[in-house]
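Figure 2 data, in text form.
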Amino acid sequence: MDFSFLIDYKNFFINGTQITILLAFFAVLFGILIGILLAMFKISSNKILKGIASVYIEFIRGTPLLVQLFIIYYGLPYLGIEFPDFPLLGQNVGDFMAGVIAMSINSGAYVAEIFRAGIQAVDKGQMEAARSLGMPYLMTMKKIILPQAFKNILPALGNEFIVVIKESAIVSIIGIHDLMYNADTVRGNTYQPFEPLIIAALIYFVITFSLSKFIGLLEKRMDTA
């Protein structure tokens, strides 16, 4: 085992880790927004909205993330939707945006089911009480239902963030300079096929383990609030 390559290539792992964390952050952020909207559609009494949400969720959850990534990366430019082409943090912004869009669309389908379950777990009497006091439906959801649902789903939402971080390694296939891409670059430059993967695995573990502990602390704080 020879890890002397870290002296010359440590920045590859640092930059790759930054891209991975940024990608996961934006994917979960937009995934939550998509998920909340879809969850509202899914529990709606409007059959059209419920149908749209159901089709979206079933299709996204029933197809591989790799296929979705290729559809976004190659399909949108084919339709005339061009991604910007300039570097940021050593990364082409267009490729990064394609990765974020694909990961967000994928994450949104899973987050939608998480939020739906969380909303439906809240006592229905609270919605009825708020409506009887004259609160509009959307205000009731925003002020009363969603905060309680968020508390219920925090562990599942944290697990989704961890899953996104691990699954983000797949974006290296479209040239995003994430941790996995840079680890493969180091492997090619050093002719060491094994050791760079060990470093990448350890970094992924540190990120996900730290996030898991943070979610646990946040959950305990919310329980005592």
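Caption note: The CA atoms of residues 67 and 197 lie 25 Å apart.
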